[in-house]
Specification:
Layout: H1 2-11, H2 24-29, H3 34-59, H4 65-80, H5 83-95, H6 101-109, H7 115-134, H8 140-161, H9 170-177, H10 180-197, H11 199-223, H12 228-253
Length: about 250
Amino acid sequence: MDSFFIGLQFLTRLHVVKQTVWTEEAFGMSVRYFPLVGLVLGAVYGAVALALSWLPVYAGCDFPVHVRAAALAVLPFLLTGGIHCDGFMDTVDGIFSGRDRERMLEIMKDSCSGSFAVVSFGILLLLQYAVLLDMPLEVLPMAMLAMPVVGRLMMVIGISLFPYARPEGMGKAFGKYADRRSCLLVTAYTVAMLALMGWQALLAAAAAAVFSLWCGRYVTKMLGGLTGDVYGTLCTVSELIVLLVYLFTYSVFY
């Protein structure tokens, strides 16, 4: 269980058990528990969405939908510390810089955010807010539950199926203990969890996997592999894809 709590502490601000000493093996093995970390986050997201959606209805009051959407859009940043969005911004800065491989990696490692990062993050946040604003109450809590689970499964896929672009780094330990066999195991238990959430969760995972595999191959051609920032990008964009799938399928089938 040490690896699970290390993953929870690394990916979130939910420090149930304070881990002060991390071995490389325990840190690397935490990849196998990323979707379970997502499930913990999803339980919080879903509970908040349920409270903001239905408690006002039962109380007979009119809660502004735009305030609810804004709160749910901001909640993931508060509980994760924005770690994945930081990776998304760094990735966008590097990939769209138009430089050579080494310069792209330097830009992605730079702590300063460029114009590409700021604009892209604004677009991402705006899209997430718009989707949450239009999301029907009937599927909103389940979408918020599935969203972080799928996002962290995509991180496992990126870590396991693609090489690491840098000679050293935090992602190196992940790749060392996350091979294709462990990816298959993680995918299997995550799909089982998603199946309990319904067919929309499975469809959302399939759509996110298509994007993640394409993105992984595209970035690997440019950089020779993925980095920790790209893992965050896979998670962040996949979460948006999950929300889009729930919104689209509800509008079509219900």
